[in-house]
Design goal:
2 domains; 9 helices; DNA binding; DeoR family transcriptional regulator; globular; transcription regulation; 3-stranded antiparallel β-sheet; alpha/beta; Arc Repressor Mutant, subunit A; Carb_Metab_HTH_regulators; repressor
Amino acid sequence: MAHTDRMLKEERQSFIIREINLHNKVLSSDLSTQLNVSEDTIRRDLKELDEAGKVLKVHGGAISKSFHFPFSNKGDVYALEAKRAIARKTIKLIKEGMVVLTGGGTTMIELARMIPDDIQATFFTISPLVALELVEHPNLTVLTVGGQLYKNAQVNMGASVINALNDIHVDLCLLGANGISLQEGITDSDWEVVQVKRAMIRTSKKLAIMCIAEKMNSVQRMKVCNLNQMSYLITELSSDDPHLAPYRQQEFKLL
């Protein structure tokens, strides 16, 4: 019996780690429902995983270490090569003289590192970490959209960010996605993040969603936007990959 319990616990914790790596943040209540165990059990699992250095326990759930410490050991970044492939594809959308608005996250940091030094463009970002990478490029003008620094995701959030975004008009908005599905569109688990992402989309002529394939066909609690609001969906897969077949009938372009 003890052996069975241990195996169940190991499987449960493996599932938790995968969910955190995939979506950056998880809620104890959601994990409890998904795994059909009590929230106390989930809290104990998260405490153990935190003490083992595998996740960061926060109020109400946990976040991935690479989400919180994106400049630390590269081995901590989940699906790093896939994220780099997405960044390389996204670079092709950035043209001379463009005004671009970005979110945060590890894929966006990889993108910021890869931008060719000869491109002249203006970048607005809600992420101080992305801004630090962008300013390394001599021909980029970099502006941060300021607000309260959201500690878990290390991006600026709140009413001041939304108000500032209302006065900006950009050519291209680059955002990550925590969930994407044909039925629900782009979704996220955090209310404040959703509000800022919606404001970012409203101020942009075109929207590019950067998303590793594992997040396809997954749904989070809150809706960010419909699929028809997107201009591009960028994954690490080839645009003719069978996994993307359901998305080929949509109005956006697959990259």
